[in-house]
Amino acid sequence: MICFLQSLFLGGLLYVLVSLHIPDIRNVANYQPSQATVLYDRYGRVVDRMFVENRTVIPLSAMSPHLPKAFVAAEDGRFFEHPGLDVVSVFRAAVNNFRKGGRGQGGSTITQQVAKSLLLSPEKTYVRKFKEAVLAWRIDRLLSKEEILYIYLNQIYLGEGAFGVEAAARTYFDKPASRLTLGECALLAGLPQAPSRYSLFNHLPRAVKRQKYVLNRMAADGYVSAGAAKNAYLAPVHLRKRQHVISSADNYYLQVVKKRARAVLGMPLQQAGAHIYSNLDSRMQVKAVGALRKGVRRSLERQKKSGRKGAIQPQGALVAIETASGRVRAVVGGIDFVKSPFDRATQARRPAGSTFKPFVYATALQKGWAPDSVIDDSPVSIRGEMENCGSRATIPENIMAGLT
């Protein structure tokens, strides 16, 4: 009896001391994590993502109904019953660890994982573990189970740089979390224990074995029937190609968009969590890059054929504008963004020269001018003197002569 009272006293004293040095759990209630900023082209396709952590926060209603159940079955079967701490699981883990002579199992509940992720350092000490338990108990009293699960599913790391189930669904399956199948939900739910060990890209057979465990747990807990679990396990796994690499063809265009977006948002895009829709036509952009490189290559070949020594690598720029709407569909600021990110299309202060003539003369013809209409070619001064190429004489001439 005396030993019991001493243990109770020491436990209470430890609780008081630890409580004086633990974070404010209101930070959990005001959950606002760093989210990725996503850039889209005119077709709604993702062309770039910028982030500190690759995360897109979504509500439970935007997830497949199987997804929360799969994670609960895999990580914390008594989640909806315990008060943030699962004494049964902790005792079971302690017994298993004692038998194995180590600390293989932690027995952490989903609520404890939320506390550890948002409020505590990753150090592995018994004091931190006790703080984690205190915080989990308090969080369970502050938030509903659904709110805790919402935070957990958006916060957890699932490998390949993906934080939260939405980023993971798009990383592994190229679809939103709302469209995941039962089998895909079970695959994701198998990752938290060891994202690298159960990597869907590197160790798929091992991940599928873990998937089977999750599906069996879901069936045992009554979330799905045994038949549905079996069918999900037998269904083929369709993964996307590993980590989408942003097309280098889009870099010049995106550089302009990012600069303007930063000015509008007033903060780094990696922390904004914004969705930015551009007028970029990715298909046209690829063709524009190809056309510019082809033209520059031919220019260099002409230089070499002319016998000029020390031929200089020519550069070029291109802007494609949809005349009906004025929307910019493609921007190419040079032949190689990696070697030279300087954008000659928007940053170079060079005259457009005769490349602008077709627009001017086409407008004149639309306004009723004829090819033989005479125009005044006398000198003009607009912030500096202007003269014809080669100091050609300035005399009145017709439109046809001026265009050629």
UniProtKB/TrEMBL annotation:
Reaction(s) catalysed by this chain's protein: Preferential cleavage: (Ac)2-L-Lys-D-Ala-|-D-Ala. Also transpeptidation of peptidyl-alanyl moieties that are N-acyl substituents of D-alanine; [GlcNAc-(1->4)-Mur2Ac(oyl-L-Ala-gamma-D-Glu-L-Lys-D-Ala-D-Ala)](n)-di-trans,octa-cis-undecaprenyl diphosphate + beta-D-GlcNAc-(1->4)-Mur2Ac(oyl-L-Ala-gamma-D-Glu-L-Lys-D-Ala-D-Ala)-di-trans,octa-cis-undecaprenyl diphosphate = [GlcNAc-(1->4)-Mur2Ac(oyl-L-Ala-gamma-D-Glu-L-Lys-D-Ala-D-Ala)](n+1)-di-trans,octa-cis-undecaprenyl diphosphate + di-trans,octa-cis-undecaprenyl diphosphate + H(+)
Name under which the protein is recorded: Penicillin-insensitive transglycosylase
GO BP annotations listed: cell wall organization; peptidoglycan biosynthetic process; regulation of cell shape
UniProt source species: Desulfomarina profundi
Keywords: Carboxypeptidase, Cell shape, Cell wall biogenesis/degradation, Hydrolase, Multifunctional enzyme, Peptidoglycan synthesis, Protease, Transferase
Ranges where the Penicillin-binding protein transpeptidase domain occurs: 316-384
Family: In the C-terminal section; belongs to the transpeptidase family. In the N-terminal section; belongs to the glycosyltransferase 51 family.
GO CC terms in record: outer membrane-bounded periplasmic space
Keyword Cell inner membrane listed: no
A GO term, aspect molecular function: peptidoglycan glycosyltransferase activity
InterPro entries: Glyco_trans_51, Glycosyltr_51/Transpeptidase, PCN-bd_Tpept
Matches recorded under Pfam families: Transgly, Transpeptidase
Residue stretches making up the Glycosyl transferase family domain: 47-218
Pathway connected to this protein: Cell wall biogenesis; peptidoglycan biosynthesis
